[in-house]
């Protein structure tokens, strides 16, 4: 059994075959799925992504210095309905740096555990 992190804001950094990177949206877990909701941007499509926890393969951290500060990105590898593999790059955010690091660790720990266990192990 594990605790599900609260819904939070996150930046989408790419990985999907959709135009437009680095957009702010919402990240949450509902039932047995991870949900990403990112609004329509300048020349980019709206993203409403639902990833079943059973389709997730691995999650790992990378560092990115392209946006003016050291950013830890979570890279989530999953398969879609056609079994095509994608690696989604995102970062849960909050204004206070110490809280942002704690939030990112919480999401990394939750998704790592969800990948290792069965999705029915989640509880609110």
Stretches where pLDDT is under 50 for at least 5 consecutive residues are 119-124
Q: How many β-strand stretches?
A: 9
Based on CA atoms alone, the radius of gyration comes out at 14 Å
Average pLDDT confidence is: 82
The N- to C-terminal Cα distance equals 10 Å
CATH homologous superfamily heading = Pleckstrin-homology domain (PH domain)/Phosphotyrosine-binding domain (PTB)
Measured by DSSP, the beta-strand proportion falls in over 45%
Structure characterization notes:
Helix content is 16%, strand content 46%. The chain is α+β, with helices and mostly antiparallel strands and 124 residues long. It has a single domain, classed as Pleckstrin-homology domain (PH domain)/Phosphotyrosine-binding domain (PTB) (PH-domain like). It has one helix at residues 97-116; strands at 2-3, 8-14, 23-30, 33-38, 47-52, 56-64, 71-79, 85-92, 122-123. The N and C termini lie close together (10 Å). The strands form two sheets. The chain has a seven-stranded antiparallel sheet with strand order 5-4-3-2-8-7-6, covered by helices on one side. Strand 6 (56-64) and strand 7 (71-79) form a beta hairpin. It is globular, with a radius of gyration of 14 Å.
Features:
124 residues, alpha+beta, PH-domain like, seven-stranded antiparallel beta sheet, 1 helix, 16% helix
Q: Outline of this structure?
A:
The protein has 124 residues and is α+β, with helices and mostly antiparallel strands.
Explain the layout of strands and helices.
Elements: E1 2-3, E2 8-14, E3 23-30, E4 33-38, E5 47-52, E6 56-64, E7 71-79, E8 85-92, H1 97-116, E9 122-123
Parallel strand pairs: 1-9
Antiparallel strand pairs: 2-3, 2-8, 3-4, 4-5, 6-7, 7-8
